[in-house]
Design brief:
Layout: H1 10-40, H2 47-51, H3 53-73, H4 75-93, H5 106-129, H6 136-167, H7 172-183, H8 201-234
């Protein structure tokens, strides 16, 4: 069982709360920006996977160094340094529209990836540092779980925003526009109606539901995994 006394530790609570926000912004914005590539700019289903690689590669390259930098300069400084470019990158993505070329998009995604990579490892490290060595595995599991909770909320809340706008008679792009506002970045209109390909909106709704179910499954696995790791530690495994 998860001992609730851990949340009396201010550093533990703050780091896990920040991880929820990171999961919300990262997963929510990534999911709907993928929809933007396909249904607003037009393209194949494989296109988002390739075009969002700059963010993924940036996280893969930067993440191993984030922990070392946090140990040297402190968790608070690294989290601040990480979230600053992440927020600026999301803000820059808010100026992307249907006619924006990919050469003017990839570097914004890379900035977002670098920012989140610099923030996530220090946040996990801060949660582990705030508890005893025997509870380090449990703290790591809780940090992972809170990130997944944020991801679930990001897809669910932003999906609800898009669905509500669509139910009110707005176009799919207008629904995405509202979702980007909630996620912290806005896809600004330029006075023209960039509508998705006719007949494809229902596939987006179905994809959103599938993603939400998947995120719920991952969150449940992480939730059950944290106590199991604590039991393993106590039994000396």
């Amino acid at each position: 069982m998860l001992p609730l006394r851990l949340f009396r530790q201010r550093l533990f609570t703050v780091s896990d709360t920040a991880m929820i926000v990171v999961g919300f912004a990262l997963m929510g914005s990534s999911f709907f920006f993928s929809q933007f590539f396909v249904y607003v700019q037009g393209g194949s289903i494989l296109r988002p996977g390739v075009q969002t690689l700059p963010a993924t590669l940036a996280m893969v390259v930067v993440s191993p160094f984030a922990g070392r930098l946090a140990a040297r300069y402190g968790f608070r400084i690294m989290v601040t340094i990480g979230l600053t470019p992440a927020g600026l990158g999301l803000l820059a993505l808010g100026f992307v529209h249907a006619d924006t070329g990919y050469t003017n998009v990839w570097w914004r995604l890379a900035v977002v990836g670098i920012g989140f990579a610099l923030a996530m490892s220090p946040l996990t490290g801060a949660a582990i540092q705030s508890v005893s060595p025997q509870e380090g595995g449990l703290a790591s599991g809780v940090s992972s779980t809170t990130r997944q909770i944020g991801a679930v909320l990001g897809v669910a809340v932003l999906g609800a925003v898009v669905r509500t706008r669509r139910s009110g008679g707005a176009s799919f792009e207008q629904g995405l526009d509202s979702a980007f506002v909630v996620a912290g970045r806005r896809h600004p209109g330029d006075g023209r109606a960039h509508r998705p390909v006719a007949g494809q909106e229902h596939r987006v709704v179905r994809a959103g539901r599938d993603a939400l179910h998947g995120e719920r499954l991952v969150a449940r696995i992480a939730e059950f995994g944290a106590p199991c790791r604590a039991v393993d530690q106590q039994s000396g495994l």
